[in-house]
Amino acid sequence: MTKNDCFFFGKVTKTHGLKGEITIKLDVVNPADFKELRYVLIDQNGTLVPYFIESLKINGDKMFVQLQDVKKMEQAVGFIGRAVFLPNEMMPELDDNDFYYSEIKGYKLVDVKKGEVGTISDVLEYPTQAVIQIMRDGKEILIPVHDDIIQKVDKKAKVLTVNAPEGLIDMYMEL
Length: 175
Fold this sequence. Notes:
Elements: E1 6-16, E2 21-26, E3 39-44, E4 47-59, E5 62-67, H1 73-77, E6 83-87, E7 108-111, E8 115-125, E9 130-136, E10 139-144, E11 150-154, E12 159-162, H2 168-174
């Protein structure tokens, strides 16, 4: 199975406990949709390797997972920083204005007042807020991911329309 057949599910951020559990920071809208998950695909040097799940617990946007055959913290440490994927057929359908962060990379970002701002290069997740990153004329523009700002997601045209706070885009362009 290749990455083209899969969607980004999350990233292993750290170990959990002393028995080889890992913590996966999830990139899904409703983590509870995955409470019966039986396996994950973990990126190992560009190859997706399947790992069966012995147990899992979900807390917010984190999943604590005990993988089969990983019983020691020393083994679990090797998974830190690795991307986790699931097959596309396991991806839940989202409402029209919902999206996965990994899905909008490459979308055009259009502001209702400023027009086309640029192409989304990434979504950066900070502890308190996720932000959409756009590179324009060599300058970085960051737009918060928030329901009051995101106006429309056109998945067919690959356009994300926002209503950025007054002066936010100008502030980045003046730097």
